[in-house]
Design a protein that fits this description.
two-stranded antiparallel sheet, ten-stranded mixed sheet, alpha/beta
């Protein structure tokens, strides 16, 4: 049994490198999936940790395909009992973060629960608030709750479970790939759990914009493309719960009007949304 971390990077900077070193210090092995087009950033990671495997894709494969390229490669010799944790380049964790998550995962297994995916609660650095899922049910293990989905960063899942789920869904390029994995895990009879005993410092999107009495998180305009594509694809999946299909319908048909009118670079957002709809209808890959 090993602790394996996988992280995607995209035009990484020195702060991202520091985050990756922190991950490597808490894992047996860290795979860095670099989706930066046409660039090899290996020099940024040379000599910092012996357990880092840097993989320059030289193009943006997206989150799902980049992770699967590692997970499905027999050369890496993963075993069924390996703990796999996933991160993005902005993930900043405290000392003992991974050890705590793995210990809680093992405790959930010992309680005879069919645990599939575990994630931490997270502290939103934009709002300076701890975000806890609203739809949750308490589990047998203290401070653990059954939830519909967890975010990618700090997600823990055993390799055998990933294999049982046929790994990440490469139809989903970026946004909602984590939700898709959680939905499929729930459908297969696994529990998706969040713990309030472990906290991840996480920035949701680019920040928060105050609109009247509402504080709204927002992403860069290009994410309108990936979010629209992901939502359109998940709307057609039978394993997606009805309440989330309603949410994705809102993402596709209602939210664009709000984002174009009230968020920065509205015209560019509109163009990305239109392109996403067009590419989806043409059956093109969700990439720019």
């Amino acid at each position: 049994m090993s602790i394996i971390c996988l992280a995607t990077v995209f035009y990484p900077n020195e702060s991202n490198v520091e985050n990756m070193v922190t991950l490597a210090n808490q894992a047996d092995r860290l795979f860095l999936c670099d989706n930066t087009p046409d660039i090899d950033n290996s020099s940024m990671f040379d000599g910092i940790e012996k357990n880092i495997t840097y993989l320059p894709n030289k193009k943006n494969l997206g989150l799902s395909k980049a992770f699967n390229a590692v997970l499905k490669n027999p050369l890496y010799g993963f075993s069924d009992e390996d703990y796999c944790l996933f991160f993005d380049q902005d993930s900043r964790i405290d000392d003992g973060h991974i050890k705590q998550l793995v210990e809680i995962y093992a405790e959930l297994e010992d309680s005879s629960m069919r645990i599939g995916i575990l994630g931490p609660s997270y502290y939103d650095t934009s709002t300076e608030k701890i975000e806890i899922a609203k739809m949750k049910n308490p589990m047998q293990v203290e401070n653990c709750f059954s939830v519909p989905q967890v975010i990618t960063s700090s997600m823990v899942i055993k390799y055998k479970t990933l294999r049982d789920l046929n790994f990440w869904n490469e139809e989903i390029f970026l946004d909602f790939a984590d939700w898709d994995l959680c939905f499929r895990a729930k459908r297969a009879g696994y529990e998706v759990v969040v713990t309030t005993n472990v906290l991840l410092k996480h920035k949701l999107g680019k920040g928060v914009k105050k609109i009247g009495f509402i504080n709204k998180h927002y992403d860069s305009p290009v994410r309108e493309y990936y979010q629209t594509c992901g939502a359109l694809k998940l709307l057609r999946k039978k394993y997606v719960p009805l309440k989330f299909k309603i949410r994705f319908f809102f993402v596709v048909n209602v939210r664009p009007f709000f984002n174009v009118v009230f968020l920065p670079q509205g015209k560019l957002r509109r163009d990305f949304i239109k392109k996403a709809r067009k590419d989806y209808k043409l059956g093109l890959n969700s990439t720019l």
